[in-house]
Amino acid sequence: MASARDIRRRIKSVKNIQQITQAMKLVASARLQKAQTRVQAARPYAAKIQQIISDLAAPGTAPEHPLLEVRDEQRVAAIVIGADRGLAGSYPANVVRLTQRFLSERGGQDVTLHVMGKKSIASIRKLGATLGGTYELPGTDVDFATVRPISRMVQTAFENREVDAVYLIFTEFRSAMSQKAVVQRLLPVEPPSAGQNGYTETYADFLFEPAPAELLAHLLSRYVDTLLFRAVLEAVASEQGARMTAMSTATTNAGEMIERLTLSLNRARQAAITAEIAEIVGAADAIS
């Protein structure tokens, strides 16, 4: 059995860790609230622009545009939105695992990865894939200026036929306890089908001015920006939610460990007292 001094040192160490995890939980909770608010604010805008694109690119009436061109996928680019920091449970590993599966499913294709998030960059490098670029992932201060350079880069590459398709690999935020890593095609743009995300086939009821082709040419680039922006917001909220959950679990586990160590300390002290009493009784018997 460990000595009482050793157990006291372990209790002190675990208490210090518990204070750190509790502080990180509170910080992640505050950041999650801010990130969740931004996700909820961005979703209606993304849904509305999806509906407009659906109306403009109605089946059989969609005008020609480079971002709508479907080609045989030989050269593929993927934007991986991973974790910026650790201590977020299995969240970083889930993104890397999905990226690895994406690469294995496209073994015969030339795949280039563009990775956002410092934590995921180091892990994805080990997969041996071609990295087209690495980017920082801001905390909760994400805006269109953050994603627009990446969006413009992949749009230009697609229009110049340097790549045949662009995909997003990110984590959808559902709640602080639930996040799901998904793959979504970014380019070529696939107009939302009727009934998707709850909206109906309404394009026949609209007259557009200027012409749909002109509007579509202006909105498609914005639409790609919006999809990427929303994906980044979802990933940031997912990371904060995963970190808050992980730190909450770590704090609870530390409390349980402290209770077990305290019980062990009491047993060690009781054993020491019993041993001393036995020595005293033995010495008294020897004297008498």
SSE blueprint:
Layout: H1 4-56, E1 75-81, H2 91-105, E2 110-116, H3 118-125, E3 130-135, H4 144-159, E4 165-175, E5 178-187, H5 212-287
Parallel strand pairs: 1-2, 1-4, 2-3
Antiparallel strand pairs: 4-5
Helix pairs in contact: 1-5, 2-3, 4-5
What is the CATH homologous superfamily assignment? ATP synthase, F1 complex, gamma subunit
In the CATH scheme, the class would be: Alpha Beta
Please estimate the helix content. Answer: 55-70%
The CATH architecture comes to 3-Layer(aba) Sandwich
Q: Helix and strand string, N-terminal first?
A: HEHEHEHEEH
- Structural category is alpha/beta
Rg is 28 Å
Question: How many DSSP H or I helices?
Answer: 5
Q: What is the CATH topology classification name?
A: Pyruvate Kinase, Chain: A, domain 1
Give the overall shape, derived from the CA principal axes.
Answer: elongated
Poorly predicted regions:
194-204
Seen as an oligomer or otherwise, the chain set is single chain
What's the N-to-C terminus distance?
33 Å
| Percent of sequence in beta strands | 5-15%
How many domains would you count in the coordinates?
1
Q: How do the strands line up in the largest sheet?
A: 3-2-1-4-5
Number of strands: 5
Task: Profile the largest sheet.
Answer: 5 strands, mixed
Look at the structure and give the mean pLDDT: 84
